[in-house]
Amino acid sequence: MKQPIYDIENMEKREDELLFSVKLMAEHPIFKGHFPDHPILPGIISIYMVKDCFSQYHHVDYTFFHIIQCKFIKIIDPTLHSKLNISVKNALSNDNKIELSGKIFNKIETFVTLKILIV
Prior knowledge:
With 119 residues, this protein is an alpha+beta fold.
């Protein structure tokens, strides 16, 4: 069984968004290699977490189609930022793909903003 890199601790539906509380597992082996003595959450994992939260809320295994925009604003160090929030808003595009707007943040700062298409 694979060791999880994060755990979704809470899911909440608000007016026009889904809000998730996520805990990073700082002891995960990926952080030993990315990077030794200076762990950083890989960017692709950040993008995956937004899609995965939306997928788990809807109980559907969505697939990436296209990254429209992605900004890595601040490095996520799992030893300093183990508790994160993920906000996801969605809209149906005109070709039946789902456009997600996501943000990874905590009480103090925003780490990642993105727009992706999933199917």
